[in-house]
Amino acid sequence: MPAQAIEDFVVExxxxxxxxxxxxxxxxxxxxxxxxGQRAALVAERQELPGKIAxxxxxxxxxxxxxxNLTGAGRRLLHTKLPHCHRRGRWWCKRPRxxx
Length: 100
Description:
Layout: H1 3-20, H2 22-68, H3 72-81, H4 85-88
């Protein structure tokens, strides 16, 4: 089949779908279905967020409390792992130059 005949066929089918509205209806329905699926997933995820945030918040608070109580080797290790606290005055470092 020559390329022009294929092109004419495709153009004619496209015109037919556009004129009678079936293409628009099919696309609209497909988009609605996809959005409904995405919405359901997002609603489920949103409902889980408060619990996850609360869990992370309590874990973060526990880590902060533990870091504040470190001494000796633990404090030195923490000091080497955290960003340059002596420039930023971080609470976790007990070194005099770091307590700004």
